[in-house]
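Hi R.,

As promised on Friday, here is the backbone we talked about, encoded as structure tokens. Could you run it through your design pipeline when you get a chance and send me back a sequence?
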């Protein structure tokens, strides 16, 4: 991620295509693995037809989360409930819905579903205001669960 604290730094940005070019200089057969339509990462291995789909001599595969250079927010179906009971529809969003308060007030299941639906319908097309990071409340990932 091309930011540190609450400061965006375009100089630290390395796009997905640049990363692939760098890796493929060393491993030309660095190929994509099948991904689902709602996946937030793009998985790759050295050669798709090798057993266990991995770079020879290494375990596993490599995943890229390309939200900065190839936006996927429109297909992201991830929702998080924070440790304090708030619904987060985007890691970089700054609006939350307190499911804890709603449940404690004994709201109906229909009301709860409507609250969740309203939150999902307000999801941004991309980055939920990432470029305005310096104006947003500092929100460490440990609180969000990312």
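Update: got your reply. Pasting your designed sequence below so it's all in one thread:
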């Amino acid at each position: 991620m091309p930011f540190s604290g609450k400061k965006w730094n375009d100089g630290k940005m390395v796009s997905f295509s640049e990363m692939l070019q760098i890796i493929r200089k060393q491993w030309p057969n660095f190929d994509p693995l099948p991904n689902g339509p709602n996946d937030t990462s793009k998985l790759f291995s050295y050669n798709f037809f090798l057993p266990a789909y991995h770079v020879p001599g290494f375990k596993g595969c490599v995943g890229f989360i390309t939200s900065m250079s190839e936006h996927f927010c429109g297909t992201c179906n991830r929702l998080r409930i924070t440790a304090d009971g708030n619904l987060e529809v985007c890691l970089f969003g700054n609006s939350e819905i307190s499911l804890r308060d709603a449940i404690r007030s004994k709201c109906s299941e229909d009301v709860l579903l409507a609250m969740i639906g309203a939150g999902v319908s307000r999801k941004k097309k991309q980055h939920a205001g990432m470029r305005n990071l310096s104006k947003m409340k500092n929100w460490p990932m440990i609180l969000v669960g990312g």
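One thing I noticed while checking it: The mean pLDDT is 77.

Thanks again,
M.
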